[in-house]
Amino acid sequence: MRIVLLGAPGAGKGTQAKRLAEQFDMQHLSSGDVLRAEKASGSELGQSLSQYMDAGQLVPDDVVVSVMAKAISAPSDKAGLLLDGFPRTVGQAEALDKQLDELGSPLDLVVDIQVPDERIVARICGRRSCPECGAIYHVEFLKPKTPGVCDKCGFEGKFSLRADDREDVVRERLAAYNEYTAPLVGYYRGGDAGRVLRVDGDKSPDDVTTEMMSMLKADRA
Ligand code: AMP
Question: What is the mean pLDDT of residues 181-188?
Fold first, then answer.
């Protein structure tokens, strides 16, 4: 099965993608992770990504399309494919359709996880990570057992906020999502991958998984 997972940043795509990929034996490709790895590699291409990613702006289509095309065509031992964070524009969706057509393996389904913007801002801007080991916390929803002390590595001090989790940057990322990515629902509704499943993401991660799995199983029946 080949699925595209849509949803604003912070809608819970990453968590749900991991669960979906495991359940249906799909290769999980997150464009954010692929681009962050390229950035961390220090390559010339990677260095050029910071100016967009740190500001919460979309990386230009030609760059993302070529990086993701390489990742999609790399050999995998999984039967299916789950794309998380890609495509994010109609141009990327067209390039993906073309590549999958050439590979003879078109998309089966698009899953759209919906969460209101203000809930997204609260979720992302409250995220903190341990500067020592990277463990993730939330000022409201996931506090360490002892305030200011990391549960995992014992680090004591100030937890950090990812550069692109600041409120101004989050609002920029949401604006980009609403302008460029939300229209993909219409794009996919009109095309061959005419089936778009909408899932209410404003619930606990377990409840979202339950709803999504039952919709997918009903869809495949
Ligand atoms: P994410 O972890 O999916 O929120 O992605 C982090 C950042 O990577 C985004 O804010 C963009 O700058 C960039 N990015 C990830 N996927 C894409 C994409 N499909 N198109 C353009 N930029 C992307």
Answer: 92
CA distance 52 to 173: 11
| Distance in Å, CA 111 to ligand 1 centroid | 18
List pLDDT tens digits, range 34-51.
Answer: 999 999 998 998 899 989
Q: Give ∠ CA 214-219-221 in degrees, rounded to 5.
A: 95
Q: Of these residues, 13, 39, 123, 128, which one is catalytic? A: 13
pTM of the full predicted structure?
A: 0.85
**H-state helical runs in 55-89:** 61-73
Q: Is the peptide bond before 87 cis (omega within 30 degrees of 0)?
A: yes
Strand partners, 138: 127, 142
Query: Which among 161, 160, 134, 172 has a CA at the least distance from the CA of 52?
Result: 172
Task: Report the distance separating Cα 113 and Cα 185, nearest Å.
Answer: 11
- The verdict on whether 70 is a catalytic residue reads no
